[in-house]
User: What shape does this take?
Amino acid sequence: MGIILNKSKPAFDELKSTNSFGEFFMNGLRDYYTYGFKSYDQYLKGQRIINERWKIFSKILGSEWVLEEGSGGRNFIILKAKPVGTQNPFSIFYFLHNISIIGDYLNYLLDLDERSSLRGGLVNIPVDLKRLDFVEGKNGVQNLEDVNNVEYSIIENWKHSLAVETYKQICNGILPLGYLIVIDKEKIQEGNSTNNKSITVNKKDNIIDMVFVVNGYKYYTTIDSGKEIDNENFRIRINRQMNIWSYRTMEPPKSYKDIYANLSTRTDYLYGLGVLGDLRDFTEKRNTWIIDQCKNADSTFKKYIYNKKSGNNYWFKSKLTMQEIFKDLLCNSADSENNNLVNSFVSLCNFFSHYYPMGTIGSLLSTRCKNISNDTYYDMFKFKHNYLQQTLYDFNLIDLLYAIEHLSVLCVIQYSHGIKLNTYEDIAIPIEIRISAVDGREYVLYYHIIEKKIKAMRLEFINSIKMYSEVKSIKKVRRFIKRDGNKKRVEEEILENVTIDAKDIAHQIITAREMLPYIWGTGVENCAVSDDWENLLASYEMEIQYNPEEELYISNRIKKENRNRELSNIRIFPTKELRRWVRSYYKRIGKYISPGDLDFNIDDDVESICDVYFSKKAPYGEVDTDYIQNKEKEYKEEGYIVKGKIVKEYVGHAALFNTLFSNYTVVLANSILECSKKDNKLLGDVLEKNVTQTFNYFNECEIKKIVDELSNIIEDSELINFNGESRFLFPESDYLFDVLPLTKIEARWLLTILNNPLASLFMTESDIKRVKEKIKLAPYKVKPLDFNCINYFDRYNFEHKDLKGKKTVNQDGRISNKDLKVLKIIKKGISEGFKLKIKYRNWRKQPIWITCAPCWIEYSIRDDLFRLWYVRNGKSGICIINIPRIEKVIELTNMKYDIKEQSMLLESIYKESMQEIQVEFFQGDRNILDRILTEFSLWEKKCVFDSVSKYYRMTLYYSKMDESEIMMRLLSYGPFIRVVADDDNYVLSEVRNRIVKQYKLNQIRKLESEKNDKSIISR
Assistant: This one.
């Protein structure tokens, strides 16, 4: 079960101290997953802190991740993984963080929900009633009625509705503790109740007079019980009302102008995320509501009516909750299996969380339904080439997609260098996201407005992103930093003032986008943006030798991999990234033409690889460059000062990842909701039960620490009153399903996947249409996400391509109607347990009929291809069929089989096929360490560092079914690695075989070249 914390501080302290899911925690987890043995001196927090953190990772992730001690002060990870994976353990780590203001958020959400009511009504407001009627501003304390009649009317109506709620609760036997209730007095007189906390109720006919005496302040109101007594049908709260729900906002600053400054830091987050709406965005609705609230139309009232953007906010809660989405659908679903719609919805989200970018959002949506769903379809889909660590980069991807969508946005990106670990800043206009389906790396390609060139940056190295609009000016500065213990003194020197020419920048962005198809991968070394950029392109020609009859797959591969070029010629910006692709054709390359600026010679490269495998020379890259964080007391950094407007919408993303969906938030909120009933359960008992169930991997000491911390937050936010009762009464108990509305990014991601034809694998067309209609409940226009700006640049699918070779991810044509029908039948066969009769064509295009018991459907992210897995008759092996090759499927509904039994059999055969090899390499100046460990994170592996030889040795465990792929991946590293295995191992022998054959082809080409040269000389 991983490593157990012994005599260490509780894990909650460590997680809570990270404050937010930022770069330090993200990179720590990435290194844990990918490396597991970096030297500790790179970290500012030191060895002990990092060791504690890795122990926490091991503890939470369990037996699939094992941390072991290594030599030379290093550790290593044994990562038990398969290239076909489904569950993503990284998702949990987004939600273990900052919960300091979740109490305020929960107060807002409950107060704005029409289903909630204050326990005790008016008497349970967390401020003195008197304070609601007065304003403390520049002219001292004044009556609110004299200063702002509109706000006064709104507050009076609110107090009246709370008084109505108080009476209803008294009638239902919910008595506010600590209050004296006097009923049926004949007449209410001044001072007839001397109790400091009392409610006097006088009934006469249908008229009910009420007096509230709270801390000596009296509030009078009258209720007509002849009319239907109801709560507000549509909850609106102005800033003055919202301010009372937090002690941080309750005390206004001295300046009346800034009275809501603290509130805006909270409400702006929720508004930007789409959780709250503001009637200021709906002028007609706002005016109608104000007219309904106000009795006297004075000058202040007219000012509110005719001012399209008044200074006040009119907050309301979005109605787009999971409960609202499924409220009618569960009853009206056409699904023959009752109430399976939620399960289908969860399956849909789980599938697309791997199939589409930003899978974290899919995890959020499915997590919202976990208490009412039983996802039965998820296991039938497996995902190959699924780099789980990409989940960690969604933290930055959301911001970058926003910037690309809004071209006027300029970003200041702070990042850490992958090898040096120094921190840098760059000024960027993002134009495209590029993801490698081969090695899992994610990059943003951006236009640098000062250097006037296209640059690239890995998402995982990004620490923070600040976005600006309406930029007036930019200053490039050099910062001189002096350290004195934990303190830093910073002095700035202006290096350059940049003038913003919006028209020129717009032209440059258009030009940069025209250049994108000619950039091989992320090789942007020579991508200066100018009108004559085509003069920078270089041509590369290569002759590929193959047998067209026996090796048809080579022809297909060549056709698939032509990005923006003719089959015989590559025209691209010069880059070193071409090397790995060229090496994959070793043993077949005849003549080739390589310009000098590509800096790659096949002859020299092959000879270098021969030296490593046949002359026993060490792999290239013998440079002992360890990862060491900058510890100098005085150093320099360059950065930028931007004069412009901060884009508010992206700021809320921090709350999305760190607050609203924190596991601690869910436990806290659900505990409060469970106690928010008439019977008023004891919060302490409920909280301890929920913490223990959710965090069962923590020990008793840690559980107690979590309970204490959450209890303090609940008390600080006054979610319970002074009597220990929950402040709100609420009928539901599931925070994520019933209370928290869908965020804007969730709604957009959901609409995007519902538009994909594959959604029909999980939900009927009528249910998809209904969910789309429900999404319109959001207080904003929901647009699908534009994933066209995401380019899986090395994912090849010959049949479905976009123009100019640009690969995109959300094209409807990614799967044909024929293949979709086949998938539906296979899925039905697996879920109902009947066999299938299938006609397909092999690679020779010969028709074949088979009868099989399907086990699961695999989707390869690298190949953009669905495949069927089943066990061959006689249990002799595993068979895999590419879905596009299937021409016909017949349902054999009378031939049943046990899907669990077949899946277990397939798993056992798969395990029997396991192989292992060792790979040796140096870290080197090209960061081979990072490249190879990231790429092979799909497979089970163990990597250790030999402090004597300075070698890294990675033991790789793989199925024999993957040996060709493993061989091709390792060959692409050329002379920078060495494969170590028995001579009869396929991977090693095939690497050697290809190098030898290519060496011979090189010699033949040289001889022919020499003959031609002699022939020319003789003439």
Notes: The first strand starts at residue 65 and ends at 69. Residues 387 and 440 are 6 Å apart (CA to CA). Residues 834-897 form a domain with the SH3 type barrels. fold (CATH 2.30.30). The chain has a mean pLDDT of 80.
